[in-house]
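Review session, final week

We close the course with one last complete record, chosen because it touches almost every idea we covered. It is Transferrin receptor protein 2 isoform X2, a protein from Erinaceus europaeus with 750 residues. Go through it on your own first, then we will talk.
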Amino acid sequence: MKLRGPEPRLSFTGRQSLGLWASAGRRAAPYLVLMALLIFTGAFLLGYVAFRGSCQACGDDVLVVSEDVNYEPGPETQQGTMYWSDLQALFLRLLGEGCLEEAIRQTSLRERVAGSAGMAALAGDIRQALSRQKLDHVWMDTHYVGLQFPDPAHPNTLHWVDEAGGQLRLEDPDVYCPYSATGNATGALVYAHYGRPGDLQHLRSLGVEPAGRLLLMRLGAISFAQKVASAQDFGALGVLIYPDPADLSQDPHKPELPSHRAVYGHVHLGTGDPYTPGFPSFNQTQFPPVQSSGLPSILAQPISADIALQLLRKLQGPEAPQEWQGRLPHSPYRLGPGPGLRLTVNNHRVSTPISNIFGCIEGRSEPDHYVVIGAQRDAWGPGAAKSAVGTAILLELVRTFSSMVSKGFRPRRSLLFISWDGGDFGSVGSTEWLEGYLSVLHLKAVVYVSLDNAVLGDDKFHAKTSPLLISLIENILKQVDSPNHSGQTLFEHVVSHNQSWDAEVVRPLPMDSSAYSFTAFAGVPAVEFSFLEDGQAYPFLHTKDDTYENLHRALRGRLPAVAQAVAQLAGQLLIRLSHDHLLPLDFSRYGDEVLRHMGSLNEFSGDLKARGLTLQWVYSARGDYIRAAEKLRKEIYSSEESDERLMRMYNVRIMRVEFYFLSQYVSPADSPFRHIFLGHGDHTLGALLDHARLLRSGGARDPKTASSRQVPGLDFQEGRFRRQLALLTWTLQGAANALSGDVWNIDNNF
């Protein structure tokens, strides 16, 4: 039995009262919601105004964002937000406050030969200049390297070998070829055009044998080192290199190189100290007793056009092909052989201290990732175009970015500014630094920007670059004014000559650029910008006449404007690379690069098939790379940019793409330039293509496309070709696997 309490009862009046209250609440609800929204909005606006007022107190402190990305302040900052257009305006305003022209003039007046007292004084001045700026770190490192200099007591000589035995007076006796072999060489003279492998093969086909001869070669087309290497491969005893008027400017309104001037150039087929290959030349370091394989075993000497004219007039034999004819007056340009000559080279090796100078602005989010910009400081002669321009622009960029730091700017990644020594001997300073830190640089260096050879004219613009930077360069060109066409951007100026802008502008990195070692040796993407004369080379490079006055005259007074354009281009590139959340490197470009080369190889697919060979594996590896690049692109597109950990992970994968194209299947000691597109050796795509050409040419080569170290007379070798194909395929496949990310994401169905 349950006991029940009295049940509650509501009277009719109570139930009626509750109904009235419910009805009133339903009618008032919208008004209550509206009132709440008004109160919230008012509070939000009041808070926003208070926040803006507090930001005004921050002064000029900024936080930089890209064009379409809004970077949030870090927890340690009180910074506001600054968009790309604001940062760009700040950079250009501060850059305009400097005086590039005077810095170029003053630098060109100073002695800057590597190892000289003048160079030591300049290095001290530049270090002090960096120390006065708002940089986080300034330091110097010194390397003790083997450099070659002429012997004043025993100058190099050139004699006729005849009854009179007369000497040909070298009009520039202190102009020489560093790293030439030393001693005497006697032989008949032969004219060899530019000295490319195809030129020497063509000589042989015309019945003129280069072996056992001294070869007369024109300046241009390939480097001094490549000319001498080709001559050595064909059995020549020595090389004489001269500037032909046909390869220089014929504009009567521009200064000309005097006919008595010779041109300087080193002949080491490589970079860095050739007496410590692969090792950094720090003091007291112990080295194995080995020299670089790129050191020549034959003699080399520069001569003037006047001396070359005397030699050409003595040559006999068949007349040179029409395309080999130069513009020396009253000379028939015959191939030879001619009378005998005796060349004596007495250069000597000197252990020389060289110093690189560094300045750094630390990044706020990724300080262990560096965007590097550098310029050669040394010069043989005045070196206005060779290194004074680059040094002046480097110092101006340091001053400008330092001023931006004073305004509150702080990049995401570190900026590293470097003044290199020993550049005229084959990028010695930069290569020694790379050798010293090779094991970490590919993990830390994002991009290298070279300021060498930046202003050699004002008509054309070239960017010698890694494919990873092409898209970014295109974007920056659209934002820099042309220095000699008012109202046009550089991009508009370029496409007015050629609608295919990259065909007009983009060039591969040459070995004589400091940027080359960064990419081909260390696997760091690099770029070198150059303004050039239209058609002909700047005539005074590597001569005693490379003065500020001649450079100013050659550019018809536009030197300041062109140097300013280079500074704007380089500076805006640095901002994007150091401050974008996601690195603006186009990793898909290498798929196009492979396809471009494969188009050339396809020409020989029938010949290869007849021998049981196929290019299918290379195509498969390229396909895997394209798929990996597209997969990464989609991952990035669908991710949150505010996720710092994820962005850093993507950036690490992107910045190592260049390194993936260094062949892991060849020894760095034997093949230091392991890059399969830019390097030298059997592992490269260029070497594979050269070898394939032997299927049809029977040993003959196109002088414009053949590599510099092809062995003359070599026939197609199937075993060697298979090995080359394997090296290329697996390097490309390795790049695809690495780009895919973690091992569990890799498709192993290759």
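Two points worth writing down before the exam:
The first strand starts at residue 137 and ends at 149.
Residues 1-18, 48-79 have pLDDT under 50 and may be disordered.
Good luck, everyone.
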